[in-house]
Amino acid sequence: MRLVFIGGVGGSGTRVIANAFRHNGVFIGSHLNHSLDNLDWPGNIALMLDPDLSFEEKAAQLCEPFTRFIEQMTQQAQAAEVNQDLLAIKVPGSFHYLPYLCTLFDHVSYVHVVRHGLDMAFSSNKNQLRNWGSLYGLNADGSSMEAMQLKYWLAANRSAAHLERLPGLETFVQVQFERFCQQPKDETQRIFSALNMELNIGDVFFSNISAPESTGRYRQHDLTVFDPQDIAALEELGYAL
Which DSSP category does 38 fall into? Predict the structure, then answer.
């Protein structure tokens, strides 16, 4: 069984990617929210952030719940009579777990979705900053949540980019959300080709994909709240003012 995890900073557009997998006959879970997050995900943020535990100790504690999770998904996929070769799991913060998942399972791949950091900074979705900010020394209770969100966006996406060389990871695919919205069929084909999957989605699905109204919302805000170095660093991930 191949496993594809779909992640990114919360609000990056992972839902539309997960939906493409689902429309292609890939099982993405039975218990999903509106954003298509897998609600059976057995993540343990407190464990992951515990400074007193080694990598090996964390992996050992994650083994049983994640093994049970994948077994449960496999059974659900069999009951649903869908593609039995591959499971896709969409959880935005899954990239934090990826080094551990690659030690627990064979045939792991990852799709990472990136959306413009300034649009993300002004998003109301700051759950990952609150949950994972301390991993990068960031305080989610600072005076400028937008500035902290951009710093988190940079740190998290830099960290995710390094996963491309992660031992045990079969395939790493990075997707720019804005490009996906502009060229949904071509981008889906690129993702699926990297994963050795055939594209079996009708054109109607792609015709209904467009950039959300929130695209470019940062242009309506004061950008002086951001560290100039962080603004300049947007270019690392393919974005600029």
Answer: B
